[in-house]
Amino acid sequence: MRRIMEIILSITERTRMLISLPFGLAKFQAAFLQFAPGPLKLTPDQVELLRSDNVVSQAAKDAALTLEGLTITPDSLEAVAPQYLWRFRAAGQFQRNNE
C-alpha cells in the first residue's frame, strides 16, 4: 500500500507524510472509522485484508488461471497510472509536462 501511495504522490507531484501503523492500531482506528460518513472509510475487514499479500497461487498458475493464461499481458502501475492521474497535479491538468 505504501508503494502505491508513493507512486501516486510522485505522478501527481505532491508530497505527503506517509505513516505506517501497526495492525493493532489500524484495527482499533477502523472500528470507529467504519461508521464515518462519506467515502473515506476504513473497516476492520479492510485491515484484515491488508495483513497478507494478494498474490496468485502456484496452483492457479499451473492451471493457467492467470492473466497470462488468458493471453492478456498486464501493464505496470507506473505505465498506466499517469494517464489517469495527470489532472491531479498540484498545478492542475494544464500544467506543462517537461518529460
Task: Please compute the radius of gyration using only Cα atoms.
Answer: 18 Å
Q: Please give the domain count.
A: 1
**Beta-strand percentage range:** under 5%
DSSP E strands, number: 0
- Secondary-structure-based class equals mainly alpha
Largest sheet: none
Q: Please work out how many helical segments DSSP would assign.
A: 5
What is the straight-line distance between the termini? Answer: 27 Å
- Name the poorly predicted regions: none
Indicate the mean pLDDT: 88
Sequence of secondary-structure elements: HHHHH
Q: Can you walk through the features of this model?
A:
- The chain is mostly helical and 99 residues long.
- It has one domain (2-88).
- The protein is built from five helices and no strands.
- Helix 2 packs antiparallel against helix 3.
Task: Summarize it.
Helices cover 42% and strands 0% of the residues. The protein contains five helices and no strands.
